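1st attempt posting a full record on here, be nice pls
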Amino acid sequence: MVIKMNRYLTAVILLMFFILPSCSAKIAQNQPENEAPPPECILVLPTFAPAAESSRAANHQKAGELQSGARFIDSVLGEELGSNQAVKMVNKSQYDASLAEIKGGRFGLLRSLGKSFDCQAALYTTVIRFRQRDGGNYGVNSPASAAFEMKLVDTASGRLLWAGTFNETQQSVLSNLFSLKKAGERGFKWITVEELVRQGIRKKLAGCPYL
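the predicted structure (as tokens):
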């Protein structure tokens, strides 16, 4: 009985000896051999604000809000990234001039700007919602609400390197107990949409491995 058991264990060990290297080889083959190096230079493009789709007054108001939001986001990005030596800020006049001259859509524009500024990646932001609070610090009819998305892409290939989305409407502690910590950090006040967006941008940039 002991001899049979020893033979069985020996067979199992030999089988594992041949199987494990094979599995390791397959795993190694599935891993990318040459990952692209991180970008040495990153362009930061002006924030995009989608235009109103019709002439209705409500859409005009929304378009105005988004344009204000885009300008504010640009100012915050300048404050947060302006001192980063790996970053080059593209102002709106530079962007608009390139947009008028270059064909090929957004990818063609990014590729051209990447070559012009000798940068391997570009960060562009789209503002989706930028609604100011209706009220003051300790009482509101409607709270601040904002949403935006950020994308970092390779200017040569158009490959997405990183993306982040922010979408928040400030909530009271009574309506959402999970917001207690965040409310405490905000001094238990109703903050402005500018404060909300600034906090969101800082949080997203902190989570980007390239910035």
